[in-house]
Design goal:
single chain; 323 residues; Rossmann fold; 8-stranded mixed beta sheet; 10 helices; 40% helix
């Protein structure tokens, strides 16, 4: 989001891509808010939920060009898809993390609430929240600054909490000011939340300590929210494994052959694989599923060693490649 004024006034209207300035006539089609919509998994989720009949409000941060390209390709008239700019970590938080005085008050509440309110105003309802946005970080702990650690944790923990709180508060009756169950819901209100975590919530890989910690916390947040928002709102997580997308897809050194031998499904995953899982969890077919983390990793987390036949084949390939 653009920076806020010093005074704590009403949040400004979000920056948009596409024609999203006015409320539309009543429409019974469901609506999803998808963060990280310009990323590979977010974009795949947009495409899949559009196919399922959803209208989509999506967010992006830096990649305005890709957001605009998705808008042109998927919905050039802006009838079913619109983008809003949202920074998961406001500038003042980035700056405050490096200071000892605590810095200015956090203004992200206003940014998040403004985007959620804009989506509800644009489409008249909000049925699903899908949180795909994250900061990928591989900085070794002994090289990371306090600001880097705080930034990753803010994006991975604080931001989804604020998003869910804003979405649930705006679309449920009564508001979440009271935690006394049950949380009654009205027609067109939020029904499902899906957050994208990672197998890094349980298994250690090349990512930073802060990234692993944020994903583990997000899994705990999923269970907490599933209990506190029940019965009206289901909350689940999707944990992708090795996904052939983004920098990986363009990197000739990314170990596809090794991963294919290691993964029981014999291939890395794709953004579409993750999007299919998201679509299931937001759908009525998952009406009795809440507080669950669905691993989308081709069986990687279930296997300590590669299947024997593929392990022998991979070893032979490595020997031949070294000759």
């Amino acid at each position: 989001m653009t920076s806020q004024p010093a005074a704590r006034t009403a949040a400004p209207s979000p920056t948009t891509v596409g024609s999203a300035s006015a409320s539309q006539p009543a429409d019974d089609r469901p609506v999803a808010l998808i963060t990280g919509g310009s990323g590979d998994i977010g974009a795949a989720a947009i495409e899949r939920l559009l196919l399922d009949g959803y209208r989509i409000a999506a967010t992006y941060h830096r990649n305005a060009d890709r957001a605009a390209a998705l808008q042109r390709r998927l919905d050039p008239n802006g009838d079913r898809l619109t983008f809003y700019r949202l920074d998961l970590v406001p500038r003042n938080v980035r700056e405050a993390a490096a200071r000892t005085d605590g810095g200015a008050a956090d203004d992200q509440d206003d940014d998040v609430e403004a985007v959620v309110a804009a989506a509800v105003s644009r489409f008249g309802r909000l049925d699903a929240l899908v949180h795909c946005a994250a900061i990928i970080d591989t900085t070794p702990l002994w090289q990371a600054t306090a600001a880097q650690i705080d930034t990753v944790l803010h994006a991975g923990i604080t931001a989804p909490l604020l998003l869910v709180r804003a979405a649930a508060s705006l679309t449920t009756q009564p508001s979440l000011v009271s935690e006394d169950p049950p949380h009654e819901t009205r027609r067109g209100s939020l029904r499902s939340v899906v957050v994208v975590t990672s197998v890094a919530e349980r298994f250690i890989g090349p990512d930073s300590a802060a990234y692993h910690a944020s994903k583990a916390a997000l899994a705990a947040i999923t269970r907490y929210l599933a209990c506190h928002l029940a019965p009206g709102i289901r909350v689940n997580a999707v944990a992708p494994g090795a996904i052939d997308s983004g920098p990986n897809a363009a990197d000739p050194h990314w170990p596809r052959r090794m991963l294919s031998a290691r993964i029981p499904a014999a291939r890395p995953g794709t953004p579409a694989d993750v999007a299919d899982a998201i679509a299931y969890l937001v759908s009525p077919h998952a009406a009795y599923v809440t507080g669950h983390t669905l691993y989308v990793d081709g069986g990687l987390s279930a296997s300590l060693t590669p299947p024997p036949a593929r392990a022998r084949s991979a070893t032979a390939d490595e020997r031949n490649a070294s000759r």
